[in-house]
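Data card: per-record layout.
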Amino acid sequence: MTELISEILGYVISYTYLIVVISSIITVLADGKRSPVRTISWIIVISLLPYIGIIFYIVFGRSYHRQRRISNRIKKKITKISKKQTINQVDLNKYPIVNKNVKLATLIGKTSELGVYGNNEIEIFTEGEKLLGKMLEDISNAKDHIHAEYFIIETDETGNTFKEALIRKAKEGVDVRVIYDDLGSWRLKRTTIRDMKRAGIKMQSFFKIRFPYFTSKINYRNHRKILILDGKVGYLGGFNIADRYTKGLEWGVWRDTHLRVEGDAVAGLQHTFLYDWLYITKRLHTNKRFFPQTTITTPTAIQIGISGPDMEWESIMQAYCLAISNAKKYIYIQTPYFLPNESIMNAIQSAALSGVEVKLMIPYRSDEKISYEGSMSYMGNILKVGVDVYQYTKGFIHSKTLVIDDEIAIIGSANIDLRSFEQNFEVSAFIYDEEHSKHLKELFIKDMKVCKKLTYYRWSHRPKYRKIIQALARLLSPIL
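The structure for this 480-residue chain is written out next.
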């Protein structure tokens, strides 16, 4: 009798599992917004990893449907105030580089809903300690408001320094708001949050991870790094608020790129922050003090591109594709993770095959092993077409930049991977300026001196076990 019951239970469990697997696969196939490559990857995971695959899909695989977080009516309110206070769409005749790249500017304008801002002064940072010092200086000079939005804020020396600076300003009566990603900032202690709130800082986490409700959103994170001071000064790029970004790692420096902007383009960052704040708190802020008139007259044109799973278009990915496709002379790319979709890969290959000089810089050693192995699996496809690949050896390169033809410099939070293009909330600055494009190019060439050039021979003669690992990592890359 016992054996019969066990046999029946075995059949019930097996058939139940089979039904769940089939149902999950049907759900994956029914999602029309998911790319075919990602669909196949999830079907393989669900089919080949008993039970674990389904759990992974439930937690990480379900789509966050692209519903607008903010109605067009509310967006128009914020945009109307911004346009009154700043120069939103520049005169193309005044900015010949923008005029030459009008298709790119138009694309970003339509997909990110932000125009080109004309009067800006910028400073590029590659060292965390210098960046933190300048940020603290700007924070101390803030008089009206401070808006901060970071993927990672940690309770360590750097995080505490940042916290104390904000607390001092809040106690002086400055309006301080902070958005932190609930998953990325898992090392941010509750005591730190409590101290900041008690000081009057308005703190909000993005996509709280609370069981069971987290399962539909845990895979969609706010990867943006934004700091805004009085609506006049703004920061964005790759640096977060944690010791490794300022002090480096045990095995080397942390090489990143961050941008300080003073001028009209800060309004684009303010737009982004206020949209995110509205989504979290359901409170609309359209006070004119958030969009003060600029006194900057330096004619440096900047456009803020944003993307996220809630938006209709994959704005940053589409802008990258168009910028790469339109290149005439050279394309220099820095990214810590190179897991491109088919569109980006085709654009890079086409550019290289057409005679454009293409250089790619990635880490020699990474902080994420699976992503690194996945990145290496793509190297053969680009080395074959003549792309020069450099591996940064001085430490870990976390920089997310593109520079094209001494005309366009792109600095932001987005990696060259599917997660940044489809799943994360990202922000990038598209700088239409010869001087700063050349400066970013010089930084790239300087970094090449501490790189090891990857050749097709060395890549193709790697150990067999690495080929297997990289093949598996590539198979999983659409869902990493």
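Known properties of this structure: The CA atoms of residues 42 and 374 lie 16 Å apart. The first helix runs from residue 2 to 30.

See the next section for split statistics.
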